[in-house]
Amino acid sequence: MEFVVFLLAYVLRRKLDGANLFSGEVFWRKAFGYSHSVVPGKEASLSKGLLMVAVPVLLLFAAEYWLRSAGWSLAVHPLAFLLLLGLMGTPGLGRVLDDYGNAWRRGDMQGAWRQIHDLLPPVERGAAGSPEHMHRALSDTLIARVFEHYFVIAFWYVIGGPAGAFAAGGLIGLRDHWPHAAARPRFGRLAGIVSFLPARLLGLTFGIAGDLAGWLSEGRSAVLTIAGENRKTLIAAANSSLTGYELEPERFSKLHPDEWPDFGERSLAAIRGLLNRSMLVWICGFALLVIAGVV
């Protein structure tokens, strides 16, 4: 039943994303927004934020345990379904990417930049010196956002149920929305720990869902490197799994100058296709675990 719950939540969440509805980012911003006040000198403290995530996690774990012990296991599934709907999702992202691709095709690079400016991390918002750099920043952000808002949640849901999914989503939310900037890098390190295994698993999945030969020659080493950053691992694995230089705009422009106006849409379509196929691989893997009685 856990598989059915996840599959239904995933399908509905994708539809909600397309309609730009029910963003989990809004929930985290409001939840953590009440923590603006802090004792001077304690802005970098993690205790309050971790407590705000730990208490719901413990309550979810206790509620699931009690319901299953009482013979009401079916009552767990609606709770898990609603929780997954809130934790997963990138609402509005598809529309932004479509507008960006259209602007790129017209050669309106300033218009393309305006479409994605708010989507990029703060460090990248003032660094778009060329179309190539802008597109690399967008590609990295697209892979990272879909990874954190779908694959990380799915991984920890399978491992730890609703409580595990909420814990992973909560740490990512603390990194992005905690009101005190001094604490965000430390929350980011915790979120990186939570994302470590899912990143390696997704990097492996890219080889299955994409060009396996290219992944074996270039991407495998990135996935097997323990010390590598999660984002760099995913980018390296994705790049090796794509066959048309969709993550290498400089190389593409030299090899296919006549097709440069189509590169924006072509690259994003390839990345989104790789991510969608990878999620399909995960869903099939989840189903096999259920059939084997592991989950």
UniProtKB/TrEMBL annotation:
The chain crosses the membrane at residues 49-67, 79-97, 150-174, 274-294. InterPro entries: AmpE (IPR031347), Beta-lactamase_Reg (IPR052966). It comes from the Bacteria. GO terms for cellular component: plasma membrane. The keyword Transport does not apply. Pfam families: AmpE. GO terms for molecular function: kinase activity. GO terms for biological process: response to antibiotic. Keywords: Kinase, Membrane, Transferase, Transmembrane, Transmembrane helix. This is Histidine kinase. It comes from Marinobacter confluentis.
